């Protein structure tokens, strides 16, 4: 019993050590779970695919598709991104009166029929309140409806109950999609209606109130469609660039300093010097001082048409410009004296204007005479070669020259711009994660040390047990030899072979009681063959998880002999039960 008690103590000690290690592991898991619980869900920037149509009666221009109306009643229309607008404009049926133009609905980008939308809520007729300084303001039917990005079925995000103006005027030939996050005020400043951009951000569909846009063009690389990204920008579409702070006037927030305009031959096309001008994709033309327009007229042989209020280009002038391919360079500068030059080839000015601006169609050069400095504007024509990034959370914007690498353009690189609030949360989480990683690393090192200690203990116990049983076996064998020499002849006759439980004649051959071995441990790695040297042993099976989960049966030193003259009966015994033990799991507290 003394040996059994010692072995049991060792098993219990090992079990306690393993349970303790399990406890350490479970404590280390707590910060890991906490870190997972604190993970931020950060929305990605949304890249809106172009419609792959070229629209407009003063372009053509690359348009983008949206859906207006909820559910199965949504209607597809095409629009132009408008940096000065903060709501969505569609063209209503009244915008295509009989006889205006053939295929009017399609040429105007598709019509929105409010009476077919189950989610349309009419408010009233209100002024659109944009481009007032250019004389392009108008009234339209205003209301609310669901607007989704992309073609119907494309899976793009949508916003419910967003402001929609249903326009019938021909001042804007195709509808527009407002990019500004400013609210709409129908009647007064006390009930602002959130813009589409603001709603996307509030609904956690984009990471910031920012966008990246370039208009695309038809004269490079077999036509390049426009690019529009909400909540970020497309890195593949530009290089370099400089940043500007927003201007204090919210209606002219994207204001830059235009330092110079020069022709490719060095001709000065901005003789009056630096001006402040607004970048605005809502309108197609570049609005300049009268002196600058006169310089363009002289340099390129242009003639101003007072009827259409456009610089129309006749056939001979167009042929000459097409052959000479002049370039016009616009140099912008910011308050840090940084400069960027956007170069426009003649293709950027080689546009077409049609009904109802003129009768039929004509080539035209997209510059406009500004009446005052509030009208100075770099319109959509400028954004054919420039990439614009506006960040309304930080009140700054960037203008950069577009790149025209075919392989680069075929692989968009969309980058998200995180709002300051999201940036602070990410930084805080990264700091917390770094601290937890350091703590976890220290815990793992302690666990590794504990594992090594347990391994050494088990190895020492195994060696000691092996030596103990080897010495005991030698001692018992010597005692058996001595007993055989003292026995009778029959016993001597059987010493040449192993002592079996049954003799050759079916008689019981047992050792005297003093030489019976004590019970062996179940699931011991040091089992003895009962056919050797007279050892009696229960055949153990491995029911545990491993050889180190061995547990002893309580035994007795009392011995019982069966009468050799009687038939052999089995001795009564009790069932064997394992001691409850903890089993170390990979993660968490130990299982029982």
Quick tags:
592 residues; alpha+beta; Cathepsin D, subunit A, domain 1; 2 domains; seven-stranded mixed β-sheet; 8 helices; 24% helix; 23% strand; disordered N terminus; disordered C terminus; aspartic-type endopeptidase activity; transmembrane; membrane
Total domain count: 2
Kindly report the average pLDDT value. 79
Number of strands: 28
Structural class: alpha+beta
Proportion of residues in helical segments: 10-25%
Beta-strand content: 15-25%
User: Radius of gyration, rounded?
Assistant: 45 Å
CATH superfamily of the largest domain: Acid Proteases
Could you characterize the architecture of this molecule?
- With 592 residues, this protein is α+β, with helices and mostly antiparallel strands.
- 24% of the residues lie in helices and 23% in strands.
- It contains 8 helices and 28 strands.
- It has helices spanning 2-37, 104-107, 196-202, 290-300, 315-324, 406-409, 420-486, 489-493, and strands at 46-48, 54-55, 61-62, 64-68, 75-82, 88-91, 121-127, 139-149, 158-167, 175-178, 210-214, 227-230, 232-234, 242-245, 255-263, 275-279, 286-288, 303-305, 310-313, 327-333, 339-345, 351-354, 361-365, 367-369, 377-378, 386-391, 396-401, 414-416.
- Strand 2 and strand 3 (61-62) form a beta hairpin.
- Helix 1 (2-37) packs antiparallel against helix 7 (420-486).
């Amino acid at each position: 019993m003394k040996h059994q008690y010692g072995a049991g103590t060792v098993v219990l000690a090992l079990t306690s050590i393993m349970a303790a290690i399990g406890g350490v592991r479970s404590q280390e898991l707590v910060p890991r779970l906490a870190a997972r619980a604190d993970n931020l869900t950060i929305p990605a920037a949304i890249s809106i695919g172009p419609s792959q149509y070229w629209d407009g009666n003063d372009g053509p221009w690359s348009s983008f598709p949206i859906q207006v109306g909820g559910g199965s009643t949504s209607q597809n229309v095409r629009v132009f991104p408008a940096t000065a607008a903060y709501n969505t404009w569609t063209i209503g049926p009244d915008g295509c009166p009989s006889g205006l133009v053939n295929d009017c609905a399609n040429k105007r980008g598709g019509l929105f029929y409010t009476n077919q939308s189950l989610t349309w809520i009419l408010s009233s007729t209100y002024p659109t309140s944009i481009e007032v300084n250019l004389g392009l303001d108008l009234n339209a039917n205003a209301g609310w409806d669901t607007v989704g990005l992309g073609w119907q079925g494309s899976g793009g995000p949508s916003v419910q109950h967003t402001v929609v103006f249903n326009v019938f005027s021909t001042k804007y030939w195709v509808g527009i999609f407002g990019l500004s996050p400013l609210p709409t005020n129908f009647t007064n400043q006390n009930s602002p209606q959130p813009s589409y951009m603001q709603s996307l951000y509030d609904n956690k569909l984009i990471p910031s109130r920012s966008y990246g846009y370039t208009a695309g063009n038809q004269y490079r690389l077999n036509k390049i469609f426009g690019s529009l990204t909400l909540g970020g920008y497309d890195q593949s579409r530009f290089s370099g660039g400089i940043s500007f702070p927003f201007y204090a006037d919210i209606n002219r927030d994207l204001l830059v300093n235009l330092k110079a305009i020069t022709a490719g031959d060095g001709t000065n096309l901005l003789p009056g010097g630096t001006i402040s001008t607004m970048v605005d994709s809502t309108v197609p033309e570049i609005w300049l001082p009268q002196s600058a327009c006169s310089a363009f007229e002289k340099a390129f042989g242009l003639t101003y048409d007072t009827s259409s209020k456009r610089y129309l280009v006749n056939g001979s002038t167009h042929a000459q410009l097409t052959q000479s391919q002049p370039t016009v360079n616009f140099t912008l500068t910011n308050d840090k004296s940084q400069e960027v030059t956007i170069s426009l080839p003649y293709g950027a000015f080689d546009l077409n204007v049609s009904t109802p601006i003129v009768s039929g169609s004509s080539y035209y050069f997209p510059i406009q005479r500004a009446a005052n400095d509030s009208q100075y504007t770099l319109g959509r024509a400028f954004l054919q070669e420039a990439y614009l990034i506006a960040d309304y959370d930080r009140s700054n914007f960037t203008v950069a020259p577009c790149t025209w690498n075919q392989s680069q353009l075929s692989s968009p690189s969309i980058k998200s711009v995180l709002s300051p609030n999201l940036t602070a949360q990410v930084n805080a989480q990264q700091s917390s994660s770094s601290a937890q990683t350091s703590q976890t690393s220290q815990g793992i090192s302690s666990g590794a040390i504990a594992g090594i200690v347990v391994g050494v203990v088990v190895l020492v116990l195994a060696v000691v047990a092996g030596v103990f049983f080897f010495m005991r076996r030698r001692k018992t064998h010597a005692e058996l030899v001595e007993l055989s020499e003292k026995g009778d002849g029959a016993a001597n006759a059987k010493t040449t072979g192993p002592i079996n439980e049954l003799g050759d004649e079916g008689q019981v051959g047992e050792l005297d009681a003093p030489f019976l071995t004590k019970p062996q441990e179940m699931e011991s790695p040091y089992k003895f063959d009962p056919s050797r040297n007279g050892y009696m042993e229960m055949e153990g099976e491995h029911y545990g998880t491993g050889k180190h989960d061995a547990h002893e049966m309580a035994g007795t030193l009392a011995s019982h002999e069966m009468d050799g003259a009687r038939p052999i009966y089995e001795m009564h015994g009790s069932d064997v039960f394992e001691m409850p033990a903890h089993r170390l799991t990979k993660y968490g507290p130990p299982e029982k």
